[in-house]
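Subject: sequence -> structure tokens, single chain

Hey, anyone have a minute? Need the predicted structure for the following. Not urgent.
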Amino acid sequence: CFTGQRISDFMNFSIDNIREQEGFKVMDIFQQKGQKTVTIPMLDQVLEIFSIKPDFDLNLMTHDQSLADLTARCISKVDGICKKVKPDLLIVQGDTTTTFTAALAAFYNQVSVAHVEAGLRTYNKYSPFPEETNRRLSTVISDLHFAPTQSNKNSLKLENIPEENIIVTGNTVI
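Reply:
Had a minute. Here:
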């Protein structure tokens, strides 16, 4: 499974936002959608709490990276993993650039892709940017589509996705 955090939801994101809270590193960020500050635990601490050791850490994030840089690094790293592991299916979740590029790397390796949170649409490729385009490109690549709502399923059907390849799951965030 491959997931990513939608950084475009946040503004004023910097290293200064990382702080200690109850012995853990957390990040305070202002969420544009909700117009509030949220505190997010850093991934390494969450993995440690639940004793999870990922098989692969892509370690993609760098300071002041462009979407093009992130895209190139993600495709290259996921491509290498696909060649090494030879999975039957790659599950991607969301609408981030890493979601789309992981799906693309799987496609290049002829690995089937399942997309969780499929079918969300604004039909404006720049809003939200780049997520709307990531959503639509991920749809074209994916073989299975896990749509949160019937409305999302209907959007996929309008794009000629076969109904038997769409499963309504409910919202994965709730």
